[in-house]
Amino acid sequence: MDENSNGSHIPKTKKPKITLITPSQIQAEFAHHDASVARINNGSFGSCPASILAAQRRSQLAFLRHPDHFYFNQLSPAILRSRTLIQRLVNAHHLDEISIVDNATTAASIVLQHAAWSFREGRFRQGDAVLMLHYAYGAVKKSMEAYVARAGGYVVEVPLPFPVNSNEEIISEFRKALERGKSNGKRVRLAVIDHVTSMPCVVIPVKELIQICREEGVDQVFVDAAHSIGCTDVDMQEIGADFYTSNLHKWFFCPPSIAFLYARRNPKGSAFDLHHPVVSHEYGNGLAVESAWIGTRDYSAQLVVPEAVEFVNRFEGGIEGIKKRNHEGVVEMGEMLAKAWGTHLGCPPHMCCSMVMVGMPASLGIESDSDALKLRTHLRDAFGVEVPIYYRPPQEGEVGVVTGYARISYQVYNKVDDYYKFRDAVNQLVQNGFTCGELSD
What we know:
By secondary structure, this protein is α/β, with parallel strands linked by helices. 40% of the residues lie in helices and 13% in strands. The strands form four sheets. The protein has a seven-stranded mixed sheet, sandwiched between helices. A three-stranded antiparallel sheet has the order 11-14-13. α9 links the parallel β8 (220-224) and β9 (243-247). It is globular, with a radius of gyration of 23 Å. It starts with a strand and ends in a 10-residue tail after the last helix. It comes from Cajanus cajan (Pigeon pea). InterPro entries: Aminotrans_V_dom, PyrdxlP-dep_Trfase, PyrdxlP-dep_Trfase_major.
């Protein structure tokens, strides 16, 4: 028996027993996937099981059945439930630190728009620096151009090595970039740091980089963690960023599209003056409320977080168990492919999560970003393999090096045969003397 604040006894309630999901049930949950395709690219668009799609459909029909009732009586409480679960998942202190937005790209626009206002309104000086990683997501780079550079910020990119062998290599380059940002008396106002870079994919030591930012007087830190939740450890108190975003439709089984944006309260308890880029009736009522209504649209993806939590808890160890098995699976498959092709991984196993870069045979002749895209298309069309390909330009003096890397993902629906299919397709291309130069634009 437990006691409440009045000293009375409250009977303990038994948690319902959860039956662990079976392999056949996993297969059924993802039966809508195209069975003819080896889908080893969960990282791009994620995956949503049938049970959560059914929950989404119920929400869509509830709106269509009686839109006014749904809007006035159901939408706000449902979004609040999702925000509350996300707050617990990421260990945020306060519920009002969590807003739900469409995706990490929207979150980046919100944060970078705020930085642009700070430059325009004089809180930041013209020419002060904003840092981002060279491997930042393309849309975030465009947002940096659209907001920060136009407002007078000096954008400094942190060049990262690839392949990468240690966290120390990343930390060293980050420190050098900070010094460039602080040159000639400038201040570094904002650092944008990926938690898991997209292409090439590497887990970045965010806690160490944020600690360096604090020591070096960087005003604000924004972690773009599009891939992180469901893929690597996410704890707002441990990470210590001012802003942090992650998609729930990539690795947490929600349908497209839903992300959270965490904005830390300052020590005095006040929040950042953030606003959704789509201005609607709720403008000025706080970002969480603004984001919860940006006009008539389909909000159903944002309402099924409870069902997603139920789904991951059907696996042994919950989301932690899924992350562990996916990491072990992607490392095993990556090493299998690298051995088959006589290449190497793009980083040590401890620097990847549920995705890893695998070097492809140099004989394929991947000599440009265009070659990489054409090869990806050829693998899809000719072999039924879906996997992103990355082109890594050779450094000066390098000859015969690996210039093409595949980014393989591993999610609960994947089977070993998916990776064997990819291995065999590449081996066949090599045996046939194929080069990317044979592919037309």
